[in-house]
UniProtKB/TrEMBL annotation:
Residues 1-22 form the signal peptide. One of its GO terms (molecular function) is transmembrane transporter activity. Keywords: Signal. Residues 29-309 form the ABC-type glycine betaine transport system substrate-binding domain. It holds the Pfam family OpuAC. It comes from Vibrio astriarenae. One of its GO terms (cellular component) is ATP-binding cassette (ABC) transporter complex. This is ABC transporter substrate-binding protein.
Length: 331
């Protein structure tokens, strides 16, 4: 039977309308976490999704535990761009099992990095300094601020979880037997300041630090190799536990840093979810961005524009060419 032109046109229009509806992007919320890297991610995601995909994404305040709990219990916010999941992994996994949450991807592609570090200029002068044996061999370089008979290892500030892990690894490596002493900087700002002061004077420095951070974006540091792999079981069951009496040597395992969404969002917004699954930052790039934000004293919105203008080769790899054109025209 020959179809009438009017009926044919109607079916075509209906098909186009259905296709357009399937690709529409709706309204949702993104957690704007209260630390710079997560806030930058939130602003970049909002800009790309709104201008490239036609979404209506709004930013709302967030923090790790409250945001994760709210997403599980209330289904809000829809997206958490940067969740350091180790601390709430059990709750998040349970939320995934109950079809309330979904892991979208790795927001930090390297994971959060922790370790004992020395400046790169020391390793250039003494290549063996990239290993713990080399640090011990040249221990006399690491002057203690209060003692002529001991050598300084700058540890994590008191009260932080990393004070426990750094202390256990200090013991496992036998650094006290080589006359090293744990020097508590007093605060995170003081630890950053001591490292920066020594680096800018090209003096030796040995201690704990983590990435991504502004400090590791500004200064070229080398993570010291302990001569072991990362033993995740040892790290979880002993290194992180205050009452562990016999710690063993292990490198810090990377801390998973995920983008997490509600299951409802993942189903309702497949295009936006796919974007979040492909989007990720290296620690080196994020550290550079954090250093720039600190030096320029700008907020996440200003940093978002700087990132989009300065690193198009990065974000264009997350989206299709037509989406990239829309985003670029909106910058």
């Amino acid at each position: 039977m020959k179809m009438k032109p009017s009926l044919c046109a109607a079916l075509v229009l209906t098909g186009l309308a259905t296709h357009a509806h399937a690709n529409e992007c709706g309204e949702f919320t993104i957690a704007d976490m209260n630390w710079n890297s997560a806030s930058l991610m939130a602003h970049v995601d909002q800009f790309i999704l709104n201008n490239g995909y036609g979404c209506e994404a709004d930013l709302i305040p967030g923090d790790t535990v409250p945001t994760g709990t709210s997403m599980i219990e209330k289904g809000q916010p829809d997206v958490a761009p940067e969740l350091w999941t180790n601390g709430i992994k059990e709750a998040l996994d349970h939320g995934v099992e109950e079809k309330r949450l979904r892991y979208a991807g790795n927001s930090l592609t390297d994971g959060g990095e922790e370790g004992f570090w020395v400046p790169a200029y020391l390793v250039e002068q003494y290549p063996e300094m990239a290993t713990i044996e080399g640090v011990i061999k040249h221990k006399a370089l690491f002057e203690h601020p209060e003692s002529d008979d001991q050598f300084a290892f700058y540890t994590c500030p008191a009260g932080w979880t990393c004070q426990i892990t750094a202390g256990h690894l200090f013991d496992a490596l036998g650094l006290e037997e080589h006359d090293f002493d744990k020097v508590d900087p007093g605060s995170g700002a003081a630890l950053a300041g001591i490292l920066a002061k020594n680096y800018e004077r090209e003096k030796p420095w040995f201690g704990y630090y983590w990435s991504p951070t502004p400090v590791l974006g500004k200064y070229d540091m080398v993570m010291v190799d302990f001569g072991s792999d990362a033993d995740v079981d040892e790290y979880r069951n002993c290194t992180t536990q205050p009452d562990c009496e016999t710690p063993k040597v292990t490198m810090y395992p990377p801390s998973p840093v995920h983008t997490v969404t509600t299951e409802q969002f993942a189903v309702a917004e497949p295009s936006a979810f796919e974007y979040l699954s492909h989007r990720g930052y290296s620690n080196q790039l994020m550290s550079k961005m954090l250093a720039w934000m600190e030096d320029e004293q700008v907020d996440a919105e200003d940093a978002m524009y700087y990132f989009l203008e300065t690193y198009p080769e990065v974000w264009k790899g997350w989206v299709s060419s037509d989406i990239a054109e829309k985003v670029e025209s909106a910058i």
